[in-house]
């Protein structure tokens, strides 16, 4: 999978997770074994939606994708800090551990692709013009003279 496709997949993941946190924080709180943090989870959902929108709105611009992924990395670090704080009050340590492991894995993916996209040059601003490529077979002009059987003079070549 290319870096751009992976970044866009993480953007869609961010949109899905953000919607889940924003619209259904109750089931997530139950899986973590904590309660009373609906506002916090909804805030995290808004942050996820913003990161996903930044990634998907970048198109194939590698710099924009990298910036969106770095926002995901920062958000993942906040998530991990919140999960570490939840250790003290959880009623479901297994669920909390599973969610923490999942966030850690996604953080690793976000970090991996953020670094790769940051280091890679942005080639989306360069366009290849096939009209000016230096290929001898493509340089001969196709004109009405060719259809009539006339001799075509290629620039830079002498005629016999």
Describe this structure in words.
The protein has 160 residues and is an all-alpha fold. Helix content is 68%, strand content 0%. It contains seven helices and no strands. Helix 1 runs antiparallel to helix 3 (38-56), helix 1 (3-23) crosses helix 4 and helix 4 packs antiparallel against helix 5. The longest helix has 27 residues, at 93-119. The protein is elongated and about 45 Å long. The termini are far apart. Residues 143-147 have low confidence and may be disordered.
- State the secondary-structure class: mainly alpha
Number of strands: 0
Shape: elongated
Series of H and E elements: HHHHHHH
N- to C-terminal separation? 54 Å
Q: Evaluate the radius of gyration.
A: 27 Å
Q: How many strands, what sense, and barrel or not for the largest sheet? A: none
Helix content: 55-70%
Determine the strand fraction and express it as a percent band.
under 5%
Query: What would the average pLDDT be, to the nearest integer?
Result: 83
Are there runs of 5+ residues with pLDDT below 50, and where?
A: 143-147
Please describe the structure with a list of short key phrases separated by commas or semicolons.
single chain, elongated, 7 helices, 0% strand
Brief overview, please?
This protein is mostly helical and 160 residues long. It has helices spanning 3-23, 25-32, 38-56, 62-86, 93-119, 136-139, 144-148.
């Amino acid at each position: 999978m290319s870096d751009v496709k992976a970044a866009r997949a993480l953007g869609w993941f961010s949109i899905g997770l953000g919607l889940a946190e924003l619209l259904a924080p109750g089931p997530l709180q139950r899986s973590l074994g904590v309660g009373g943090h609906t506002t916090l989870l909804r805030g995290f959902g808004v942050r996820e939606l913003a990161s996903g929108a930044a990634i998907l709105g970048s198109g194939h611009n590698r710099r924009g994708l990298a910036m969106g992924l770095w926002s995901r990395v920062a958000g993942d670090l906040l998530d991990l800090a919140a999960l570490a704080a939840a250790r003290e009050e959880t009623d479901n340590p297994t669920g909390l551990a599973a969610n923490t492991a999942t966030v850690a894995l996604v953080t690793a993916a976000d970090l991996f692709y953020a670094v790769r996209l940051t280091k890679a040059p942005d080639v989306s601003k360069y366009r290849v013009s096939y009209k000016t490529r230096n290929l001898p077979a493509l340089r001969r002009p196709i004109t009405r003279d060719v259809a009539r059987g006339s001799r075509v003079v290629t620039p830079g070549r002498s005629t016999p």
